[in-house]
Amino acid sequence: MNTPVLKLTDVQKSFGPAKIIQGVDLEIAKGERHAIIGPNGAGKSTLFNLVSGLYSLSSGSVELNGQVISGKKPFEINRMGLSRSFQVSNIFSNMSVRENVRCGVLWSLGYGYSFWRNVGNLKEVQEKTAHILNEVGLLDKANLPASLLPYADQRTLEIAITIAGGAEVIMLDEPTAGMSHSETDRAVALIEKAAKGKTLLIVEHDMGVVFGLADRISVLVYGEIIATGKPSEIRGDPRVREAYLGEEADHFEGATA
Ligand SMILES: Nc1ncnc2c1ncn2[C@@H]1O[C@H](COP(=O)(O)OP(=O)(O)OP(=O)(O)O)[C@@H](O)[C@H]1O
Fold first, then answer.
1. Best of 13, 14, 19, 20 to mutate for ligand 1, by most ligand atoms within 8 A of CB?
2. 40 C-alpha to center of ligand 1: Å?
3. What's the complex ipTM?
4. Is residue 49 within 6 Å of ligand 1 at its C-beta?
5. % of the chain with per-residue pLDDT over 70
6. Taking the complete model, does pTM exceed 0.90, yes or no?
7. Labelling 28: which of 14, 69, 170, 231 has CA 20 to 30 A away?
8. What is the mean pLDDT of the segment spanning 69-75?
9. Boundaries of every domain in the chain
């Protein structure tokens, strides 16, 4: 592998006496679409929080394009090219859909959150915002307050904000949670479009989404990666099947690589 875009070395995280992440090593290549799966409570969100700087590591390191990012603040990591979405939405509910996306665009163009400026007049910002709204299918709802959007559209807006910042690495935390089948299909199409040419790291419970979207999958169980590989390798891995014994094991049967 060339220099990985993202490299985790012996990443560990404890909360008090509880060791939640127990030495994770992971390398993600440029342009790769990588999914992290695992049973509830395995530590997937915690791992996301460690990579994006929301939590500090107990030990180990995280590198982005060869630069150590562990220890940096989330906004610094974002500035270095890594953007993430949240399970609990990150949107400003009193602002319009357009203003929400515009915040991400402003950030990417180096204006920061310049709420006090008359940013509506900046042509580049307007154009980029409209382009993203169009891409994610929210242009016709651009002037609505974000809080009035239906749930699935709010999740779409969350993805739009995440990509609006122009980051090279996009991390999505359960982007299709709570969506219907058709909403999930639309979200997957959007993610595929938005992630083109970028590196994607995704936590997702829906195995159809995972096996359809990911180039490689890592399986996290009790804070350890027990397997990393192509979808076909993961589906056939007995350790993975064991970790998913019960309901979710059936999803591996149905999932297509
Ligand atoms: N800030 C915290 N303080 C203490 N314990 C925490 C904290 N954050 C997470 N945990 C614990 O870490 C464990 C892993 O949680 P985490 O949310 O990372 O799992 P997950 O794999 O994302 O689960 P799910 O699939 O249900 O979202 C859980 O036992 C959780 O209670």
1. 20
2. 8
3. 0.95
4. no
5. 89
6. no
7. 14
8. 91
9. 1-79+200-257, 82-166
**Under CATH, domain 1-79+200-257 is a member of which superfamily?**
P-loop containing nucleotide triphosphate hydrolases (3.40.50.300)
In this prediction, residue 233 carries a pLDDT of: 92
Task: Report the half-sphere exposure of 169 (CA within 13 A, side-chain side).
Answer: 22
CB of 40 closer than 6 angstroms to any ligand 1 atom: yes
Is any atom of ligand 1 closer than 6 Å to the C-beta of 20?
yes
Pick the residue whose CA is nearest to atom 4 on ligand 1. 15
Q: How far apart are CA 14 and CA 30, in angstroms?
A: 29
Instruction: For residue range 166-211, list pLDDT tens digits in order.
Output: 889 999 999 998 889 998 998 899 899 888 899 999 999 899 999 9
From the CA of 38, give the closest atom in ligand 1.
21
Under 8 Å between Cβ of 145 and 59: no
CA separation for the pair 92, 107 (Å, rounded): 15
CATH architecture, domain defined by 82-166: 3-Layer(aba) Sandwich (3.40)
Which residues neighbour 201 within 8 Å (Cβ) at sequence distance 6 or greater? Answer: 6, 28, 34, 35, 36, 48, 51, 169, 170, 171, 172
